[in-house]
Amino acid sequence: MNIYVGNLDREVTEDELREAFAAIGEVSSCKIITDRLSGASRGFGFVEMPTDEEAKKAMAELNGTELKGRAVTVNEARSRDDS
Q1: Is the dihedral of CA 40, 32, 58, 22 positive or negative?
Q2: What are φ and ψ of residue 80, in 5° steps?
Q3: Which secondary-structure segment (H or E) carries 15?
């Protein structure tokens, strides 16, 4: 399941984000979205977890928790055409 993680501090690294989710379950991939020109974090990213059970547990446990001083938003990612 693909998980959206928003309101990330611009200093959070992919390794730190992966560690937060790995404490709950297996992480397949982790990507923080960056600006194409500057390379700076855009403040959100995506985490892929192989099982829906672990992903739902991670969303429930991590939504609203602090990561580097900011309360993160964690929910199921929607495809772009859902907007």
Answers
A1: negative
A2: -60, -35
A3: helix 14-22
Residue 81, both tokens = 């055409």
Domain ranges of the chain: 2-73
Q: Topology of domain 2-73, per CATH?
A: Alpha-Beta Plaits (3.30.70)
Q: Is the pTM of this model over 0.90?
A: yes
Closest CA to 78 of 22, 21, 6, 16: 6
Instruction: Report pLDDT digits (tens) over 15-61.
Output: 999 999 999 999 999 999 999 999 999 999 999 999 999 999 999 99
User: Are 55 and 49 spatial neighbours (Cβ–Cβ below 8 Å)?
Assistant: yes
